[in-house]
Amino acid sequence: MSRFSTGAAVVAVGLVALLPAGMAQAATKTVNMGIPPASQRAFQDSFADVNAFFPSAITVHRGDKVKFLAVGFHNLDLPAKGGATTPFAGPSGQTIAGANDAAGNPYWFNGQPDLEFTPSLTQLAWGKSFTYNGKNGVQSGLPFGENLKPVTVKFSKTGTFTYYCDVHAGMKAKVHVVAPRAKAPSAKSDAKAVKKQVAAALKTAKSLLKPKVANDTVLVGNSGKGGVEVFAMFPATKAVAVGTTLNFVMSAKSIDVHTATTGPGDPEKEPTSFLGKMANSIGGQPPFDQAGIYPSDPPGTVASLTPTSHGNGFWGTGFMDTASASPLPSSGKVTFAQAGTYNFYCLIHPFMKTTVTAS
Q1: DSSP for 236-261?
Q2: Mean pLDDT per 10-residue run, the chain (359 residues)?
Q3: How many angstroms separate the CA atoms of 25 and 86, rounded?
Q4: How far apart are CA 291 and CA 327, in angstroms?
Q5: Which residues have a Cβ under 8 Å from the Cβ of 192 and sit 6 or more positions away?
Q6: DSSP state of 184
């Protein structure tokens, strides 16, 4: 011992031994907001992600801390007891005006609310520490940036508290805060629970790769229990006769948001193209291009798609989800009125694609 005498060390050990069980040292546990980094590669072959916290429940002693790690596009919303979560996006207070398509014609959604990220979600708290007692909420903000530091929360009140991701409605988990003398699972036990959760999610992901899809349907993503989402469109290619109407449909169990959008450019490989710019505005460079959020044509109508629709072959469902409380649609129909090859992308996840050939 270079700086402490043997006697001092014995005294210190004795003091620790006198503390009640669970109080010898405040512990810090970890929650991954998304698939733990060490397990992410296993999901790549399935084009899958998991909109879930790992572990899905955690127990800590009062006074312990939890580090929430940003390992996916998720945020931490720990509301005050009885409080509400924060909407991912909403009206900015402005009204859309002067939005025209490539042919110079006004879009139908002029006069509708301009939709943007909820301002409180752009106030970032990554790397900060908080104390939570149920009276004041904790909000990390959206995970903009690289190598974000975790949000650390010290839990100073016993009870069971639910926390959420505002980006993915339905993504939630619980923290059980017990008294210092109470038993709580060890970090080793938590790691086993995470391993089991990952294995179950991977099994689900593999089961979602070959869905049965109706002949008049394109499935936009496929989803299963536990927040598992396969980021692909099914089928990947489709041949139809001119005059066919296809329905682009969200998977019933999805807690994600997707679009099905066609027009000039590949939004993943051509960032300066028509669709590329639209996707960039939605992917973290607001203000949003409202033509990517709203359906390209009035709700309730089935547009006739040609290579010159809206001046450049543009058509889109706008944002879709399956949340019961959401005003967003869960599907969108379009009729292929002219022969051609049409590539459809999700503007939020541009690697999701299907090609429809009409002849």
Answers
A1: SEEEE-TT-EEEEEE-TT--S-B--E
A2: 34 35 67 96 94 97 97 96 90 96 98 94 95 95 93 97 94 97 93 97 96 97 96 98 98 96 97 96 84 96 97 97 86 97 97 97
A3: 34
A4: 17
A5: none
A6: -
The beta strands (E) that lie in 187-330 are given as: 217-223, 228-234, 237-240, 245-250, 261-262, 303-305, 315-316
Give the dihedral sign, CA 285/287/289/292.
Answer: positive
Contacts 24+ apart (CB under 8 A), 100-107: 101/291, 101/296, 101/310, 101/311, 101/312, 101/314, 102/274, 102/310, 102/311, 102/312, 102/314, 103/308, 103/310, 103/311, 103/312, 104/311, 105/310, 105/311, 107/290, 107/291, 107/294, 107/296
Instruction: Give the bridge partners for 305, in sequence order.
Output: 336
Which backbone phi and psi does 333 adopt, to 5 degrees? Answer: -110, 145
Q: Which residue has the tokens 């949000």?
A: 151
Give the position of tokens 């229990």: 225
Rounded to whole angstroms, the Cα distance separating 289 from 90 reads 14
The answer to whether residues 359 and 288 touch, using CB atoms and an 8 Å cutoff, is no
Q: Of 212, 221, 208, nearest to 354 (Cα)? A: 221
Question: How far are the Cα atoms of 90, 158, 284, 332, 349 from residue 328, in angstroms, in the given order?
Answer: 12, 38, 20, 11, 17
Cα 78 to Cα 166: distance, rounded to the nearest angstrom: 10
Collapsing DSSP states into helix, strand and coil, what is residue 7? helix
Name 333's Cβ contacts closer than 8 Å, sequence gap at least 6: 245, 246, 247, 248, 302
Contacts 24+ apart (CB under 8 A), 155-158: 155/60, 155/62, 155/63, 155/64, 155/65, 155/66, 156/62, 156/63, 156/131, 156/132, 157/62, 157/132, 157/133, 158/62
Could you write out the three-class secondary structure of 24-57?
Answer: CCCCEEEEEECCCHHHHHHHHHHCEEECCEECCE
CA distance 206 to 210: 9
Exposure string for 257-267, b = 16+ CB within 10 A, e = fewer: bbbbbbbbbeb
